[in-house]
Each structure stands twice: as C-alpha cells, then as structure tokens.
Amino acid sequence: VQLQESGPGLVKPSQTLSLTCTVSGGSITTNYYYWSWIRQAPGKGLEWMGAIAYSGSLYDSPSLKSRTSISRDTAKNQFTLQLSSVTPEDTAVYYCNVHTGFMDYWGKGTLVTVSS
To answer: Per residue in 45-95, pLDDT tens?
Structure first.
C-alpha cells in the first residue's frame, strides 16, 4: 500500500488546513484497515489526530476533536483532513497512515507551516 499526502505547504493563522491522502495499491474500504492522520511538530513527538475506518466510522483525538474533520472519497480512494482555526503551533509534518492489523504503512509526510 502506498500513501501520498498533498496540500498547501503554507496556511495563514485562523484559516483551515486541508490535506488529502491518495492511496494506491489497496482500497480504503478494505476490511479492518484504519486510516489515520498523524503529525509531528518541530522538536516534538508524533501526535495522532484522528482516523477513519474501512467502514467509514470516525475516531477523534480528544485534544483536537473540536477542530478536526476527516472524510473520504471512495471513488477517488482518498481520505482528507481538515483542521480549522490553525495557529503557528499547528506547524508540523503531517503524515497519513494505514493500520492493517499486521503492519502500518506511511506516507512520506508533508510540511505545513502556519504563518502570516
């Protein structure tokens, strides 16, 4: 399974960050696959932001729940992240990930900088 993140590299404060993960080599509706967004801010550890399951069920991070929205487009085999009301503290490398039950696959990550 291959994952590729895409989206703007620069977002202004208070705007909404939107990223898309395009999946190849597998379907986002494959049973028991869970598709996540994870980020890593400079000098910090990995932070799980939320996930959408093969069934379409959503899982939220308690700390980000009010600002995140994850959705999918099964026709395009993509899933997306929207993070609202961003601040410079949301500057990070954003990764999409799939947990298959046997192993995880990761995208290469995309740096998003929040700055005016």
So the answer is: 999 999 999 999 999 999 998 899 999 999 999 999 999 999 999 999 999
Q: List Cβ<8 Å contacts ≥24 apart for 46-49.
A: 47/92, 49/81, 49/83
Q: In Å, how far are 1, 41, 94 from 18, measured between CA atoms? A: 22, 17, 11
| Tokens (6 digits) for 103 | 């192993």
Q: Give the phi and the psi of residue 89 in degrees, each rounded to 5.
A: -70, -10
Which stretches of the chain are DSSP H helices? none
Q: Which of 63, 49, 64, 115 is nearest to 88 (CA)?
A: 115
Closest listed residue to residue 86, CA positions, set 33, 28, 16? 16
Indicate the average pLDDT of the chain: 96
In sequence order, what DSSP letters do the residues of 27-47 get, joined into one string? -TTSTT-EEEEEEE-TTS-EE
